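Re: beginner question about structure tokens

> Can someone show what the tokenized structure looks like for a real chain? I only ever see the sequence side.

Sure, here's an example I had lying around. Input first:
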Amino acid sequence: MKVKEPIFHYVSPDIYYQIKKGDSLTVLKKIEDGKFDLILTSPPYNIGKSYETKTSIERYLETQEEIIDQLVRTLSDQGNLCWQVGNYVDKGEIFPLDIFYYEIFKKHGLKLRNRIVWHFGHGLHASKRFSGRYETMLWFSKTDDYIFNLDSVRVPSKYPGKLHFKGPKKGQPSGNPLGKNPSDIWEIVQQDWDTGMWNIPNVKSNHPEKVDHPCQFPIELVERCVLALTNKNSWVLDPFSGVGSTVLGAIKNNRNAIGIEKEEAYCKIAKQRIEDLKEGRLKVRPINKPIHKPTGSDKVSQVPEAWMKINFVNG
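And the corresponding structure tokens:
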């Protein structure tokens, strides 16, 4: 008698997910109030990528505010909104988008909980200014009663066995036994998970998740937000979903998810990536994987120490 092969569910059959093709503003107007516990996205930066039309920063922000108005409406009272942006550059002048967006979100009544700096060691090189190596994520809540599961994303303490040496707690552990708060800097270091920094490489050509998108969102960044800022079966939204990384990070962790994307090509890639996740074929960089450190046998072994810290991910 043939033994039946076990079935592995990489995505729970009870989880709902959808990639909606269309304009974000149009789709959002059809969604009910208070649906989402987390809205996580990286909006177009207005820097002339293939999927966006560059315009003045004033007009760009006006258009984005129309969408933000709908996002706030669809965010639950316990919900969180994470807005990850870089810089708008016009004729060599830098406009830090998080500063402009902060005023918009405050006008809509949201409360800033953290300004997270995501630092990465690899990217485009500038010639007339220092090369950009960070982006920022603004984490807002709608009310003071917001979802925050710190224990889900704690990192190991540097000195886990350290004890109080005096006072009423003398002899007791001085730190949280589950680990420490990972801080608001998510940085590229060699042993991120051990040092307490959050190791999130940007998705470049040698990243295992790389597909045909110029500004791809790392699933690892999504997962950490999902685990900390939602509960199981919460609803997650990405209004500019691109190739679906937010949806993937959500459904991988038993959250319902909707992604909105206007480009047909990116919708197709997102849907294929979801199918690959369901079948266990999707290449994903593990959330606690350390950065590769070149050894003496690597071709780059003779370069300066500063170069050795650049993000080389072999998948």
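Each token stands for a local structural state, so reading them left to right follows the chain. Residues 34 and 76 are 4 Å apart (CA to CA).
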